[in-house]
Request: fold
Amino acid sequence: MLQIHALTKRFVGESETVCAVDGLSFEVGPGEVFGLLGPNGAGKTTTLRMVLGLIAPDSGDAEVAGIPTSVDPFAAKAKLGFVSASDGVYPWLTVREMLLYFADLYGVGPDEATARLHVLAEVMDIEGLLDRRAGTLSTGQRQRVTLVRGLIHDPPVMLLDEPTRGLDVVGVQTIFRYISHLRHVGKAVVVCTHRLDEAERLCDRFGLLHRGKMQYEGTLTQLRGVSGREHLVEMFDDLMNPSTPPNEIPT
Amino acid sequence: MNLSWSRLARLSRKELRETLRDRRTILTLVMMPLLVYPLLSMAMNRFLISSAGPGTNGFVIGVDTEQESNWLQSLLHDPRSHPPESILAASGGELAEFQVVIAPEGNADQALLDNELDAAAHLAISEGDPSSIRITAFAGDQASESARRILIERLHWLKLQDAEGILKRIVPEFTSYDVTTTEIGEPQSGNVLASIIPLVLVLMTITGAVYPAIDLTAGERERGTMEALIASPVPRWWLLLAKYIAVVSVALLTAVANLGAMFATLSLTGLMSTLVGEGGGMGLKEMGYIFLLLVLFSAFFAAVLLSLTSFARSFKEAQAYLIPIMLLALAPAILSLMPGVGLTGPLAVAPLLNIVLLAREILEGDVHPLGACVAVVSTLLYAAGALAIAAKLFGSDAVTRTSDQSIGSLFRRPTIATPRPSIGEAGMVIALLLPASFVVSNALMQWIRRQGGEINVPWQLTLNAISLIATFGLIPLLATVLGRHEFASTYRLRRANVGFYLGAAVMSLGAWAFAYEALVLADEWKLALLNEDQIERTRGLLEKWKTISPVLLVTTMAFVPAVIEELCFRGYLFSAFRTVLRPWHTILATAVLFGLFHVFVGSTLLIERFIPTTLLGIALGWIAYRSGSVLPGMLMHFLHNGMLELVARYHDQLAFLGSETEGNRHLPPLWIAIAGGCLLIGIAIIHFCPRTERPEAMADLSQA
Reply:
């Protein structure tokens, strides 16, 4: 459903050029939750931005539901849902107005959008919030509205960037339920996070990024086999500390 | 993704709804007009009361004693103290009224300090007449100073009458001379509003546009909604267009609300007649003009503000950018109040100043059509250019949620070369072309005129060609280099099937005759705006052409325009427009631009050139589209211009062919029939010629 082919992005600074993502490739199938993990600056968010068309890759390509982003970026964007911890709302619009606006942006017709809104509002328990001004919502309520916004156009691929950042226990549980729902309805999901404990619970497969390169890729069992470590945290530690190099594995 | 007008309307409605619900917008939209104008009118009333005029009962003069009061009243009632009729007529026609009062406690100076008087008079009276008179005014108070001045004048008139009577008695033959006053020239408009309204327009429009411009651009970043917006499958320029419509709407609403409040306040307080002048007033026509000006003002400001706020990382930063711009915007508005500054020459393309001057001219009822036309077109082009900049910047760094863009980033060359420019870049080029060509051609004309007879015709033609290269050649070239676009695909420099060259050449054999006929018809139907002097100068120029080398004539008037204009219109602009427009829309858009740019020649508006040039542009655009190349059109353009110029040069020698009979400037019917035949054959050749592989194939694919 989502295929990444040798994505590369360099940022040219005043004194140096940083290769944020270096020839990254992976793929995610329907109903699969893929954890794109790595320390800060590993290139996770840059990867998502390139897939979303927010920044142009220097080379490489992504294919969303069979549509290459380099050939028809807008058609590819229409197949993507995106949720980030830093997402905001339009404070002067009602929740309903805001969600229907995003449905319109994605080309969903008014009747279909209204029907989808009711289904999702029930799933995410925001029915009572639909006619409230978005600026009056609490943090948890905003988070649920944002999660609905990501799904309003029923995209086959969902990208989640640090979805649990800044949330309390209840909020984190909401995210877990949301991701379970996505898996259940057959979405291909990519979750970027550095909360490794959560990732272990959430994801079916993992990709460990370091300095823009994919270091490990596979299920938790496969990663344990090739890294010789039990938990993702230990594998991470190996990455960050080259004195205890991980086993060489093809990715 | 379907980008329809109804969708744009829905996107704009959301932006407008969001903005209009915001308390800050309501504050500028409602509170400003409700509070500011009544307060301003109170201040103005106060100013007028304290200005040079007297109160309702005339100037009040205070004295200390009854004796002083009696003498002063007798002076003021004495007809000898009145100025002669002619002097009185020159200073307004009304004799100033005075009221003489005895100050409380016999202290006129104190009463003056207490603001109870306009002036105080102290008379030292002995034997019935004063030996000295001291008149005191309140320092800095115009009404008080006027009262003192007029009172002194009355005293002097009295002395003068007395002196004249004495002189006549001593010298019986003495006769005084008569003084009469008269006026010449156009009366100056007493319409103060004509000067004030443009200034108020600037302030009002900025006030209305500033907040939504910031909120809808920098505000998106601050709220954290930018990423989700840019990640949606809608082009950024489409999102920006919706925001632009919202900003223009709010600016327009604010301006209309302010204008309404201003007129209501002026009418209710009676200040209107003072500001507009005797018998003045604002009719529906003037209000309609003001509304159209508001639309133009709003369109311009909204685009400029959006381009600036798109740079900003936050609300605060955007405000920091806009405060200097607001102050800068006041400068041209104030400059327009200066006498002698008019909508002519380079001022007609000076951003903002041209619109303020146009507003003044409209309100004074003295509009110059060329200046007005140039001002409106150039302002719309500036707005388009500013929008293109905004579209380039808006959301381009949604990743970081803070902007790393700088002014320099606009001129930074991309790292990867692209085959053709974007529509935004083309907009910037068009926005630059009009003022550049206007300034260059005007400067050239002025220079040639100043040189008088020293600059000969060959030099004039050469300078014209150079100015064409400097504007229509260099500006797109610089844009191509800065944008790192491939030259061959941007300028459509491809080899075309030989049939296209043949068809273009045959078409040109017919096209020039129709262009010639269109000009003759425009002249006959009085569509031309040239005055007698300009027509005479043009005839003189055509006469001079008969003396110069045909090679120079063809090089400067046919070869250079054919190459430069084709590269610009059917090359750069055509390939940019094709990225978003369908073929016929592209052909029409470039043809209309081609026609428009041929209308402005120096300080002359050659309206009659628009239709024939646009039609030629359509033919050239069609050839460019069919052939996929700029070269066949270049050949047609060269032959078309060349034949027109050569017919003009060898007009006398062609008389034997019946090119002109007495009183009839039309071409002979046989010529027109042959030209029509050539045109049709040329069209057929191009139509049936196998099409060259089109460079726009990708653009077509993405639109399908």
User: Anything to note?
Assistant: Residues 169-184 of chain A form the longest helix (16 residues).
